């Protein structure tokens, strides 16, 4: 090497830590001898692990090692430039660098690398010699230069560390490394470090593992027993449920068969009752006809000349005879004999001479059968004053009259007639109201008609036709038709006017069976 033999402070954090630890390990070694080494290569990372321990090695990177090697090459601190093999005084100490790190999942990963510590040793206990060659010299930049002859002299005389001192340093360092490793193992617990007592640690680990395995097996056995118990219990419950379902199915089949038999029996009974009813009805009609042969109408019917003298025309007299007297006579006879179903009175004007005939009809209403479907009363083309309307509506209210029709009538007072009609609508027997061609002219009368319909108790069939005078729209807005089965609103000049009365009526009326809106302006 060129230049004088001179000492140079070694660079880097790694080397300073190593030197400090070496000083602590061997107090007999002079500090100058440790911190100043003539032309000798620095120790490798492996030798640093031997003295400093695992903690120091954690701070060493491969970049530092490579940089150190490159610096050694530049400074001539590598192998001898003469190419001679290392002498016996160069003691080789192998060490293993063990480092720890954790991967992304937290598992400890261990890596190791081998290195060699090259130390130059002299002879003699504790001898520390100095170089006898040319002194180490520094240039302007502080870098030492050596001559070619200095390398040989340096190998013979520079820093001779006795074998005994070296052994004590290595021994102390090894003991400290083991002690530190044991402490770190106790602190870290799960980290990888040198075991103080491998046999004891292995035995303890085996015992712990065996205990954990026994606990796990016991837990598994317990869970398996519980699982088997649950399976057994569920199996019993499933069997019980299946048996219950089978019993219920059989009971259901038996009940269904029994109900079918009962339904068939009821059908047979109904047919039998219908047949008996027809037979009884025929018998009653025959008996009534026999009785009626001797029955006489209680009021005398005046001849045609009487009505002609009163100013009746022949056509009016003919309507009076056929539409009033004949119908009235038949209705009274049937009512008194209890076989009447329909009472029809038509084609008659108000006349005081006809009041006896009306009174006979009203008295015969007392014979209406209170049971059964009731009687239908048709009043067509009749002129009715307040008294006649009051008596008719009174009988409708208190007799078994289920259907009433007012068609093309002339009321002396429309408002009073509607009021009396409202009283009759309180009957629980009345189911159907037909108001045809009885024009309600005023809005007040139409509002009154709407109110009386609203207070009806049992009517579910309404026929309100040809009564429009532009005010029949009030029915759609003012009457609750939600329970009606039949609605016939034919010819009332109804309009929608952008409203939803009719659609709402249909939407809220689930019982509705028939709706007639023909001949309106919809």
Helix content: 40-55%
CATH superfamily of the largest domain: Ribonuclease Inhibitor
Taken as a percent bin, the fraction of beta residues is 5-15%
The Rg value, from CA coordinates, equals 65 Å
Q: What's the number of helices?
A: 16
Mean model confidence by pLDDT: 73
**Terminal CA distance:** 124 Å
What is the C-level CATH assignment of the largest domain? Alpha Beta
* CATH architecture type of the largest domain: Alpha-Beta Horseshoe
How is the main sheet built?
A: 8 strands, parallel
CATH topology of the largest domain: Leucine-rich repeat, LRR (right-handed beta-alpha superhelix)
Please give the domain count.
2
Low-confidence stretches: 1-12, 25-29, 31-166, 176-181, 183-196
Secondary structural class:
alpha/beta
Per the principal axes of the C-alpha atoms, what is the gross shape? elongated
N-to-C SSE string, H for helix and E for strand: HHHHHEEEEHHHHHEHEHEEHEHEHEHE
* Count of extended strands: 12
Biased composition (Basic and acidic residues): 134-153
Keywords: Coiled coil
Coiled coil: 206-290
Biased composition (Low complexity): 88-98
Describe this structure in words.
Residues 134-153 have a biased composition (Basic and acidic residues). 51% of the residues lie in helices and 14% in strands. The protein is built from 16 helices and 12 strands. Helix 14 links the parallel strand 9 and strand 10 (461-465). Helix 10 (314-337) runs parallel beside helix 11 (355-364), helix 12 runs parallel beside helix 13 (414-424) and helix 13 (414-424) packs parallel to helix 14 (443-454). The radius of gyration is 65 Å and the shape is elongated. It starts with 12 loop residues before the first helix and ends in a 6-residue tail after the last strand. The model is unreliable at 1-12, 25-29, 31-166, 176-181 and 183-196 (pLDDT under 50).
């Amino acid at each position: 090497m060129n230049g004088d033999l001179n000492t140079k402070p070694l660079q880097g954090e790694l080397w300073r830590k190593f030197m400090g630890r070496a000083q602590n390990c061997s107090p007999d070694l002079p500090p100058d001898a440790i911190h100043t080494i003539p032309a000798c290569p620095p120790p490798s990372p492996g030798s640093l692990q031997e003295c400093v321990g695992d903690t120091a090695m954690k701070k060493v990177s491969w970049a530092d090692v490579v940089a150190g090697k490159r610096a050694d090459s530049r400074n001539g601190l590598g192998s001898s430039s003469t190419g001679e093999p290392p002498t016996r005084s160069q003691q080789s100490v192998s060490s293993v660098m063990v480092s720890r790190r954790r991967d992304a999942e937290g598992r400890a990963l261990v890596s190791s690398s081998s290195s060699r510590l090259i130390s130059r040793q002299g002879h003699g206990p504790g001898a520390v010699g100095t170089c006898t060659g040319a002194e180490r010299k520094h240039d302007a930049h502080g870098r030492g230069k050596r001559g070619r002859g200095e390398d040989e002299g340096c190998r013979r005389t520079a820093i001779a560390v006795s074998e005994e001192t070296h052994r004590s340093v290595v021994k102390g360092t090894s003991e400290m490394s083991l002690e530190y490793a044991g402490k770190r193992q106790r602190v870290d617990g799960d980290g990888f470090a040198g075991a103080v007592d491998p046999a004891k640690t292995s035995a303890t680990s085996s015992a712990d593992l065996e205990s954990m395995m026994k606990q796990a097996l016991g837990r598994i056995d317990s869970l398996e027993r519980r699982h088997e118990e649950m399976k057994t219990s569920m199996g019993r419950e499933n069997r019980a449920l299946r048996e219950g379902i089978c019993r219920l199915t059989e009971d259901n089949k038996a009940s269904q068969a029994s109900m079918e038999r009962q339904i068939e029996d009821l059908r047979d009974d109904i047919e039998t009752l219908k047949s008996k009813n027809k037979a009884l009805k025929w018998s009653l009609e025959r008996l009534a006809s026999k009785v009626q042969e001797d029955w006489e109408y209680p009021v005398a019917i005046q001849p045609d000349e009487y009505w002609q003298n009163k100013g009746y025309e022949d056509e009016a007299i003919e309507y009076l005879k056929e539409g009033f007297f004949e119908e009235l006579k038949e209705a009274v006879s049937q009512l008194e004999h209890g076989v009447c179903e329909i009472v029809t009175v038509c084609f008659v004007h108000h006349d005081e001479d006809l009041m006896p005939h009306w009174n006979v009809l009203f008295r015969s209403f007392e014979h209406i059968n209170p049971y059964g479907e009731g009687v239908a009363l048709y009043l067509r083309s009749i002129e009715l004053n307040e008294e006649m309307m009051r008596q008719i509506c009174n009988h409708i209210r208190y007799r078994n009259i289920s259907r009433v029709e007012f068609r093309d009538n002339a009321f002396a007072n429309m408002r009073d007639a509607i009021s009396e009609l409202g009283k009759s609508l309180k009957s629980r027997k009345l189911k159907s109201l037909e108001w045809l061609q009885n024009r309600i002219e005023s809005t007040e009368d139409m509002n009154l008609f709407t109110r009386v319909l609203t207070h009806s108790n049992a009517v579910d069939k309404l026929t309100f036709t040809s009564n429009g005078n532009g005010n029949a729209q009030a029915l759609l807005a003012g009457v609750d038709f939600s329970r009606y089965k039949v609605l016939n609103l034919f010819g009332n000049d109804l309009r929608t006017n952008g409203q939803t009365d009719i659609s709402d009526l249909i939407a809220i009326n689930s019982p509705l069976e028939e709706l007639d809106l023909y001949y309106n302006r919809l």
